[in-house]
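B., you asked whether I could sanity-check this one before it goes into the benchmark set. Here's the sequence:
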Amino acid sequence: DCRCQKCTKMRTRSQCENPHTCGMRAKELLDQLPEKWDPRCSNSQATLVRRQVSRSQEDRTEEWIDFAHNLIMAMTLSDIF
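And here's what the prediction gave me:
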């Protein structure tokens, strides 16, 4: 039962009895994901899209976001799963 500041805060916020153990288990599960599905990977396609949308929102002067036309990829449906 960890008593560090982070775990104490998480225990109060999420009502989890043992946030340290939950965090360790979450990491184990994330470690099993392939890189293209791992949200921690900075070079994933989703991360690139989020960055592009973020940049577009920062740079925009009107109320719309440019379509990310450079996301065309040569993949099959089996590559996704």
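One thing to flag: The two ends are 38 Å apart (CA to CA). Otherwise nothing jumped out at me.
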